Amino acid sequence: MTDGHVKRSIRLRGDLARRLANHADARRTTQAAIIEAALDTFLSPDASDRLEAALARRLDRLTRDLGRVEWHVELSNETLALFVRNWLSATPLIPSSADQATRAQGRERWERFIDTLTRRMEIGPRLKNELSEDRK
After folding, report:
1. For the chain, which residues make up each domain, given as ranges?
2. For residues 56 and 66, is the Cβ–Cβ distance under 8 A?
3. Taking residues 12-24, what's their average pLDDT?
4. Fewer CB near the last or first residue (10 Å), C or N of the chain?
5. Is residue 55 a contact partner of residue 63, using CB atoms and an 8 Å limit?
């Protein structure tokens, strides 16, 4: 104990011990150094202030991200509403004599639309990518 260190023996869960060993190997340091740094941080009087500051930064970022998502949702809603309004005003009424054939064609077009939408959502391309390419 002449060097200012005190030997302690602790038990760790197996998964935590593996994570500690992997982290020490990756950082090229000792497990004891990592434990000392963690305890020093945890027991520091300003640890709660640092945690609060980190949480505040994360909340600020999430708030900005949420604002962007909200803007995109509003843009999508307005775009859809504008399209539907224009489509309804420009599409003529269908005579009842063509009703059955028109419905069959409508179902077919709807299924193609859903297939296309599904494919775009799964593998792309996405509208935002097309818009950025159009601006080049």
Report:
1. 14-43, 46-91, 99-136
2. no
3. 94
4. C
5. no
